[in-house]
């Protein structure tokens, strides 16, 4: 599941592959961009902003993409077979003389003026992996709605940008917080942005996300995806339930013993939740902005 660390790593890979040389191929397979041709232009840089990717192209243009739940960019050497999915899932192809970047299942792909990037990312809170990270501003935003459940507050990209469902569940477990605890009741709330930053920094260069400190397969996370299995701390079966507004629910995982506080009925098996709707590109709102 793409979160801030995955997007940071993707941006670095795209930047290395595309920046500098002129594009020899430009194929944007969404109706709004069907007539756009960037061939001959140079990519000047590729930047992550929270979960957004900004590919800046000479001439003052930015190709804005968002991976949401299952989008991906893959980079291939010239002549290498593309293996990211069937052809009908390809939404973008950008190529230099020796590298080709292919965007699969991209739910958001749009071209805008670089000067207008604020229209798609200006609503975001401090970027956990950005050079301008501001822990105090992130904390201020988290506390601005004191009655909101901490799990929902962490997912809201307007508070701090880069946390997804995995880190939400892992952060709450590591700090022994019920994800349904109101933000006003969180002890030492400054720990939230501090630990979030630490986890994403530790994982931004890894292909396998680790929150436990143990990189072995099946030992990497504390609670995410482990409903019904024993807590690594106390042995209690872990729970899962949907959290968020109806139709926007995301599955939250927690330990009923290690994370006391308000919780829904415990379901010690895999929970189902509706994935977030994509919504208009660039509008503030759900956890995947």
From TrEMBL:
Region Disordered: start-end pairs: 265-289
Keywords, sorted A to Z: DNA damage, DNA repair, DNA-binding, Glycosidase, Hydrolase, Lyase, Metal-binding, Multifunctional enzyme, Zinc, Zinc-finger
Gene3D superfamilies given in the database record: 1.10.8.50, MutM-like, N-terminal
Pfam family, one: Fapy_DNA_glyco
GO molecular function: class I DNA-(apurinic or apyrimidinic site) endonuclease activity; damaged DNA binding; oxidized pyrimidine nucleobase lesion DNA N-glycosylase activity; zinc ion binding
InterPro entries the UniProt entry points to: DNA_glyclase_Znf_dom_DNA_BS (IPR015887), FPG_cat (IPR012319), FPG_N (IPR035937), H2TH_FPG (IPR015886), Nei2_N (IPR044090), Ribosomal_uS13-like_H2TH (IPR010979), Znf_DNA_glyclase/AP_lyase (IPR000214)
Catalysed reaction, written as an equation: 2'-deoxyribonucleotide-(2'-deoxyribose 5'-phosphate)-2'-deoxyribonucleotide-DNA = a 3'-end 2'-deoxyribonucleotide-(2,3-dehydro-2,3-deoxyribose 5'-phosphate)-DNA + a 5'-end 5'-phospho-2'-deoxyribonucleoside-DNA + H(+)
EC number: 4.2.99.18
Residue ranges of every copy of the Formamidopyrimidine-DNA glycosylase catalytic domain listed in the record: 2-103
Domain FPG-type: 222-260
Classification via SUPFAM superfamilies: Glucocorticoid receptor-like (DNA-binding domain), N-terminal domain of MutM-like DNA repair proteins, S13-like H2TH domain
Annotated PROSITE patterns: FPG_CAT, ZF_FPG_1, ZF_FPG_2
Sequence ranges of Pro residues compositional bias: 265-281
GO biological process terms, semicolon-separated: base-excision repair
PANTHER family, sorted: ENDONUCLEASE 8
Protein family: Belongs to the FPG family.
Protein name: DNA-(apurinic or apyrimidinic site) lyase
Species for this entry: Streptomyces klenkii
């Amino acid at each position: 599941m793409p979160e801030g660390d995955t997007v940071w790593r993707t941006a670095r890979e795209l930047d290395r592959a595309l920046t500098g040389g002129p594009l020899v191929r430009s194929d944007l397979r969404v109706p709004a961009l069907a007539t756009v041709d960037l061939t001959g232009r140079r990519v000047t840089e590729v930047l992550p902003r929270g979960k957004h990717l900004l590919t800046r192209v000479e001439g003052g243009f930015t190709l804005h993409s968002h991976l949401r739940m299952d989008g991906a960019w893959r980079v291939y050497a010239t002549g290498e077979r593309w293996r990211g999915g069937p052809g009908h899932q390809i939404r973008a192809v950008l190529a230099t003389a020796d590298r080709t970047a292919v965007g699969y299942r991209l739910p958001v792909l749009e071209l805008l003026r670089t000067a207008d990037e604020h229209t798609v990312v200006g609503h975001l809170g401090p970027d956990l992996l950005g050079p301008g990270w501001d822990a105090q501003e992130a904390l201020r935003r988290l506390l601005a709605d004191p009655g909101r459940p901490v799990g929902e507050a962490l997912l809201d990209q307007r508070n701090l940008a880069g946390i997804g469902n995995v880190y939400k569940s892992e952060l709450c477990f590591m700090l022994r917080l019920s994800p349904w605890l109101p933000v006003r009741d969180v002890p030492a709330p400054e720990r939230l942005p501090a630990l979030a930053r630490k986890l994403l920094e530790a994982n931004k260069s890894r292909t396998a996300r680790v929150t436990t400190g143990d990189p072995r397969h099946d030992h990497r996370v504390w609670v995410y995806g482990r409903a019904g299995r024993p807590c690594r701390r106390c042995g209690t079966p872990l729970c899962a339930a949907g959290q968020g507004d109806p139709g926007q629910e995301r599955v939250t995982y927690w330990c009923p013993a290690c994370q006391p506080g308000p919780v829904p009925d415990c379901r010690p098996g895999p929970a189902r939740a509706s994935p977030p709707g994509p919504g208009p590109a660039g509008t503030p709102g759900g956890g995947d902005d």
